[in-house]
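Q: Give me a protein?
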Amino acid sequence: MDPQDVERTLLVLFRSGAPMTASDLARTMAFGQGWLGIDEADAVVAHFIQTGWLRSEGDAYLPSRDLAHVQVPLSWMPRPSRLLDAQPPGQAPPAPTPAESPHKAPKSITEKKTVERESDDPRVRLEGRLIGFIARASGLDRAEVQRRAERKQHALRPCTSWLGLALVAHDQGLDMHAIVDALAPTAQA
């Protein structure tokens, strides 16, 4: 595994250079950055301590490696699985066994839509059309609209997929009256 996500995460967390407690690190990841839920953030911090990415500094922690070479691209977010599976610094990850696939295939958009269509919320049935409308009106492709909506959902945690799409439409400067009307609970697919 490439340690880049861990290094970038630590660089963002320790931007000030000051030591941080485990609870402050978890709160910053969960609430300050919106990367993870609080339970997941607690698990990541514990894993970083256990694997040696963080070193003790009194009652707090600092990164165990120099991060001066690390650059964080604009709008970068860590993948939680990479943080939870991080190997100790400088250690190569174990090779996958033949039964394991080195990369898990992401759920396809059609699989996701099938699951979402089972919802009782009538707005879920409108998502495909709404994605298409936002894509046409903004000039983005459908996959990019979906990706941005998913990022909004992840950042806001209790956010529904259709609300994520509405926020993407707003970010793109689209007329929100039509979108709000389309997402009214009484709207028909």
Q: What stands out?
A: Residues 104-117 have pLDDT under 50 and may be disordered. Residues 109-182 form one domain. The radius of gyration is 20 Å. The chain has two domains: 4-84, 109-182.
